[in-house]
Every structure is written in C-alpha cells, then in structure tokens.
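Need a sequence for this fold. Nothing fancy.
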C-alpha cells in the first residue's frame, strides 16, 4: 500500500518501488476509480493529507469536487492548512464523534496507520480493496497487529484485464466459525 502513485511519493524505510500501481492501470480500474471518487468527505492521515494537499488543489479536473469536500485530518502535529475545508482531528474520540454525526459519507484513502487504528477500534463499515498481481516484499502494511476479528460480506467485485481484483466489502458483525464438512 506504500507509494502506489509514483517513485518519490513515499520512500520511507528505504522503499524503492514507488509507482508500482502504474503498470496495472486500465479502463476497467479507471471506471472503478471514478465511482470511488464520487463526492464524499475524506478522513486522512497526516502523510496522505500532505501528499494530497500538494497535488489535488491544482488537479481538481481529475477528481471533481475534491477541493470542496471536507478533509478531516488525523494528526498529532498539523493544525492548519491552506487547502480549503481542512479540519484537524487530534484523537480517536474525535473520529468516533465524527463517525456518529449526521452528514455525508466519509472515505479513507491511503493512510495506512489511520486505517489500522480504525480497524483496531471497530470503526470500519466498508472496505474497498485492490489486490494486485505482485509482491513487494517490504513496505507499509494495511492489516497489521491490532486488527480485530470482523466479518464482512461481498457487495461488489471485478477483475481488470491487468489482473487486479477489486472488491467492496460491507461489515456484517462478528466472525462465525464452524467445521468444514460437518
């Protein structure tokens, strides 16, 4: 999940495979991306926010509405930004309050540590996952220590001509167990 967009996006930890998504982009994946880029407020970690804030204000034609939605940013260090509609959150309690409030849908893009925090605290209602036909060996992980057991149901899926599997899962409750063949 680290640095999918370009070689210099995130080289932390000596990561040298930035831009690994580019060879797999095709029309089918592009149509799914268009659907995912529908107007919705965003919840971002600080690093993803910094990447977005340095790019999207000048490229809104590729993501109409990105500058108008509210960008909620979980950060211990940032408190302000010139990117309009940016709101800074300080704690898990702030996220819980946001989740329980009325308003538009909230999407998380990237933000690996933030997603891990949300998974650990049962704050994920839906997952959009893309599984690429490659292994990178190292880099940031999506599912890390602390993810709670949780069950999801498949809502939608597609496979692109380049072999990317795209799935949308909705949270259904606790993990059920049983015995195969019983």
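Here you go.
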């Amino acid at each position: 999940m680290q640095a999918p967009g370009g070689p210099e996006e995130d080289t932390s930890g000596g990561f040298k495979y930035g831009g690994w998504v580019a060879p797999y982009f095709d029309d089918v994946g592009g149509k799914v991306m268009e659907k995912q880029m529908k107007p919705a407020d965003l919840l971002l970690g600080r690093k993803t926010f910094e990447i977005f804030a340095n790019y999207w204000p000048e490229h809104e034609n590729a993501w109409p509405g990105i500058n108008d939605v509210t960008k909620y940013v979980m950060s211990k260090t940032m408190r302000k930004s010139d990117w309009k509609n940016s709101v800074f959150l300080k704690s898990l309690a702030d996220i819980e309050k946001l989740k329980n409030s009325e308003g538009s849908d909230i999407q998380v893009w990237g933000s690996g540590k933030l997603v891990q925090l949300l998974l650990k605290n049962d704050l994920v209602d839906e997952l959009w996952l893309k599984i690429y036909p490659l292994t990178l060996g190292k880099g940031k992980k999506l599912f890390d220590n602390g993810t709670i057991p949780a069950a999801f149901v498949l809502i939608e899926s597609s496979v692109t001509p380049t072999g990317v599997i795209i799935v949308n899962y909705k949270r259904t409750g606790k993990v059920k167990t049983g015995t195969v063949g019983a």
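For context: The mean pLDDT is 91.
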